[in-house]
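Task: complex structure prediction.
Instruction: return structure tokens for all chains below.
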Amino acid sequence: MDFPEEYKYTEDHEWVSLEGDIVTVGITDFAQDQLGDVVFVELPEVGDELQSGKPFGVVESVKAVSDVYAPVSGEVIEVNEVLPDDPETINQSPYDDGWMLKVRVVDPAVVENLMTATDYQTFVEG
Amino acid sequence: MQKTPLNSVHRSAGARLVEFGGWEMPVQYAGVIAEHLAVRQHAGLFDVSHMGEVEVVGAQAEAFLQYATINDVGALADGQVQYTALCYAHGGIVDDLTLYRFSAEHFLLCVNAANIEKDHQWLQTLLEKSSFSELQLTDRSAEYAQLALQGPHAARILQTLTHCDLTTIKTYWFRQARVADIDLIVSRTGYTGEDGFELYLPADAAESLWHRLMTAGRDDGLVPVGLGARDTLRLEKAYALYGHELSAEILPLEARLGWVTKLNKGDFVGRDALVKAKQDGVTRVLIGLKLTEAGVPRERYPVLCAGRQVGYVTSGTMSPSLRQGIALALVESDAASAESFEVIIRQRHVAAQKVKLPFV
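Output:
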């Protein structure tokens, strides 16, 4: 199981990477492993406003439907166009090619309050 | 939660275990899609020891089962298997099962895990209320383990472990044979739509047989398969699953089980209700839907025709073979002749087309 040091993490199993006021968001290696084969991804549209803690999309595996929650508030500026056609990219590369969206965050400081890789690893491994 | 004799084998194989019908079962090992495709292209090994086995022994065994089940038990020869169901007097389904005839006085019923006690109780009650005598019903579920070896390479793999000539066991026939030094029942049946076998054996021999089979199948692409792929495999072939397509509230004639409902075989439990339903025409019928847009139909999602709800999805999934959403749906008979439907997925109307079954 992979927990890249440079990312921040949420209790809902999303990872966040901050550059300036833009965050990239995806689901963690742990989340994709728990879900199993991802077969469908529903993403917001560019321009949508996300509210921290509210669902912004859906990831479906063969067996289950899971909401994905916004780790921060802000405007969606880009979504990963690869995912609708190749949802399994999330399983293959959750932290790189399987990224879900980029958001112009309202308050970049909130990212600092999210879990570190070590905290998140403790969180999921108990 | 009950455990099969292979529980620790699954754990060491890295399976993800879930609760199913009161049992802790492997839902997947490597992944549902990979396991599904392995069964379609090579072979897969399933632990289905959660399934129940009820033995019926006695001079009137055949007559009793002819009365208790909807298919024609009289049509069976020794060594033959039959797919059938138990119905209530009102025609709803108690359970669907496979029935094994050893002789006219000895049968074995393979029933769904979640229904073992209910079925045993139901048969016992039928027996007590009827005039059949000298009959013994015994729940043998704890004594039996069951493995399913399924896929185009299944016969080749199994043949390496037995002197019994498997080409002489035709589909829906069985044989008592020695496989990997274990005396067991080899049944040419399954729930995947592929060639294959279901093996009934003493519970304490399950681990040994599992390892012998996995070793024998190594070069033929044999992989362990969990309940996740068992479900997608059966759904692609439109096989009904109790609790989804079949229930006490659904008639066999509504659930595409007309072919096993033998209304002319003489009296049986549920016959009057089913004859009436056949004469009046059923109000609902099971159809196959394929989504023509992206999405995954799931159980209980509403199904619309011409803007009006006409039914619901009984089972749905992303078909690993077709890479498309597929569903079985129970819809009003009047709507069943239509070609275009919609499935509501999270408030979204997703277009679906009726397709001939099976899907694959």
